[in-house]
């Protein structure tokens, strides 16, 4: 497990069934570190981090408890890098990073050990979060073994989500997807803080969760007939919501809010109503002492 902090460090833990221990403290950023993301283990033990300093660092564990900086993308963005995520391993070692400068960068590792960079121009107000579509989300029924182009969803300070589709061949360009959010239904009214594409349960069945400073958690489903993403509300809190995360099966959604609570939600049988399963509250340190 890895955590990041405004003290500019990243801590890596070994976690057991009943205990944990810090096994490494990673440094190198010159500002608060906002998010970390693990690469698929087929590439080794690789962890990416992004920071207020406008950079992305990619760290690798070369032997137990010993880490090195595989790549430091200094000046990658002109402002804070707010979120990042590694893509599905089928596309290679590839990373997307969302920035307050309004762009999303795509970093891809090359066979000669270099990294290429592409940029998507997203919201001029700034981008807070990015998430990849899992492999299998878009499948050609005539050729189910064909790997579909990569796709991304971003959440921005303009209160909206954007969907992007990558190139089918190396050297192609990313473009904004034709399917976008249905703005006639439920939408966010403040900054979108996080987005999370659900694991692929069925071919061509797609869900994306989003959360916002407006306190809403929405789940968007792609209506292939109308080519629109349509939303349903999971919950509406009176506090900002910072993060959403799907279970590995895609049946449950974890929600982290500004009231220090983490709640778990499960969709009803109709797929449009959500039931709260559990809530974990983190008490202030003064209350937990004794």
Automatic annotation (TrEMBL):
Mapped WD repeat ranges: 188-230
Primary localisation category: nucleus
SMART domains per the UniProt record, alphabetical: WD40
Record PANTHER family: NUCLEAR PORE COMPLEX PROTEIN SEC13 / SEH1 FAMILY MEMBER, PROTEIN SEC13 HOMOLOG
Keyword Repeat tagged: yes
Keywords on record: mRNA transport, Nuclear pore complex, Nucleus, Protein transport, Repeat, Translocation, Transport, WD repeat
Protein name according to UniProt: Anaphase-promoting complex subunit 4-like WD40 domain-containing protein
Pfam family, one: WD40
Protein's GO biological process: COPII-coated vesicle budding; mRNA transport; protein import into nucleus
A GO-annotated cellular component: COPII vesicle coat
Anaphase-promoting complex subunit 4-like WD40 domain residues: 205-282
InterPro entries assigned to the protein according to its UniProt record, in alphabetical order: Apc4-like_WD40_dom, Sec13/Seh1_fam, WD40/YVTN_repeat-like_dom_sf, WD40_repeat_dom_sf, WD40_rpt
Subcellular location: Nucleus, Nuclear pore complex
Similarity section: Belongs to the WD repeat SEC13 family.
Organism per entry: Amphora coffeiformis
One annotated GO molecular function: structural molecule activity
PROSITE patterns found in the cross-reference section: WD_REPEATS_2 (PS50082)
């Amino acid at each position: 497990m890895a955590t990041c902090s405004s003290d500019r460090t990243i801590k890596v833990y070994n976690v057991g069934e009943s205990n944990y221990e810090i096994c490494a403290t990673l440094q190198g950023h010159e500002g608060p570190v906002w998010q970390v993301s693990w690469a698929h283990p087929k590439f080794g033990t690789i962890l990416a981090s992004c920071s207020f300093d406008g950079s992305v660092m990619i760290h690798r564990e070369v032997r137990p408890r010993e880490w090195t900086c595989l790549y430091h993308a200094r000046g990658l963005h002109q402002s804070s890098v707010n979120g990042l995520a590694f893509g599905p391993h089928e596309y290679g070692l590839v990373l997307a990073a969302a920035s307050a400068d309004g762009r999303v960068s795509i970093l891809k590792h090359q066979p000669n050990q270099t990294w290429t960079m592409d940029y998507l121009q997203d919201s001029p107000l700034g981008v807070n979060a990015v998430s990849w579509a899992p492999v299998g989300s878009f499948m050609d029924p005539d050729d189910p073994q064909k790997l579909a182009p990569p796709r991304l969803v971003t959440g921005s300070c303009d209160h909206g989500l954007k969907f992007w589709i990558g190139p089918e061949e190396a050297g192609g360009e990313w473009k904004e997807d034709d399917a976008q959010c249905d703005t006639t239904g439920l939408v966010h009214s403040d900054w979108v803080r996080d987005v999370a594409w659900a694991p692929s349960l069925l071919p061509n069945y797609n869900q994306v969760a989003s959360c916002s400073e407006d306190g809403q958690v929405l789940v968007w489903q792609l209506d292939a007939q109308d080519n629109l993403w349509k939303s349903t509300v999971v919950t509406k809190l009176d506090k900002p919501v910072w993060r959403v995360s799907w279970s590995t099966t895609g049946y449950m959604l974890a929600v982290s809010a500004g009231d220090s609570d983490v709640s778990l939600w499960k969709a009803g049988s109709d797929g449009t109503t959500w039931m709260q399963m559990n809530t974990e509250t983190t008490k202030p340190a003064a209350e937990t002492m004794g």
